[in-house]
Amino acid sequence: MTYKTIRYLTFHISLLLLMLFVCAVQPVKANAETDSLRQELLAAQKNRDDEKESLARERLMVTHYNNLLYDSLIAEAYPNMKYFSDHQDWEHYYYVWRMLVSAYIYSGKNNTALREVKKMYADAQRRDNMEGIAMASHVMGISYFNMGYYDEAQKSFERAINMTKGQKNEAFMLVGLYGDYCELLSAQENFPLLKSATDGWWEALMQWGRNKGMKDEETAETVFATFCYVAKARAERGLKNYDAAEEWLEKATHNAKLYGEDSDEGYWHHVVSELGELYFEKGDYGLALKYNDELLKWINVRDIDSEVTGAKQQRAELLMKLGMYKDAALLWQEVNEATRERNLKDAKDQLNEMNALFRGE
What is the pTM of this model? Predict the structure, then answer.
């Protein structure tokens, strides 16, 4: 089956948001939280309380990020980075820089993101800051991945993994890093390496849970574990180990249903998408179509344009296998038109971005 998820941006966003959620503040109504934090920042500056000022700055940037307020984050990143640099707080300095690069990525400005992350990487190298190099390598990998430069992305992710090992926040950083690396390996259809990488992901995930005082069985029911189960199933499916793939998807289904199939938090659509792929390859087209029904229902309720085209492509291929050629042809027409429009939009956005970069030089 040729269907692949269109880019994987939803996956990247979910992982990074969850990482920030664990690390800092829970997402709340953006305006109220932002106003409150600005007041805290002003009070800390008035009282010359560096500790409280650092915390307010960090939380303000995280709040922008978690609420997808990328314009605000981009505008305020460098002043905050200067503050952390002046106070020799390199951990938060690179943390904010990483959020800045991510904001460009999720705003569709991949060329700008790549330029920015190369500056970040050079800066971390100059300071011989291993954690900064690891963070830069991670988001550099995402930038290359989204631009379709898979070989460069793989090198960046693997460098990030190697640089992260032994760092203070090793397990925390590796959980998200392995997630993105496994998505790349899936897109490359490098299933032997994907299977191996999910073992490293699982090890990091368990250690992350232990660091938070969680039992392994509790960690195994987190959303992170659901993503890992799906990746493990994808690897086994690619290696034609269908029974093993089913076992991993049973675990993923269990986790997703803990949140409820209609919940955004459980990421049920990732599970049913992989279930549809598995049963397509096994030749059970009726069951595959059932899961595609669930996938389209989940996507349509949320009006997620970035994922609906891939789901329709999956459905068109299923209808072909079921001999429903007329319905399949109509869907293929929709898919081709949507793809053409998306490519035109991407090309226009890229041209606008390059023009903006040119004017800024």
Answer: 0.81
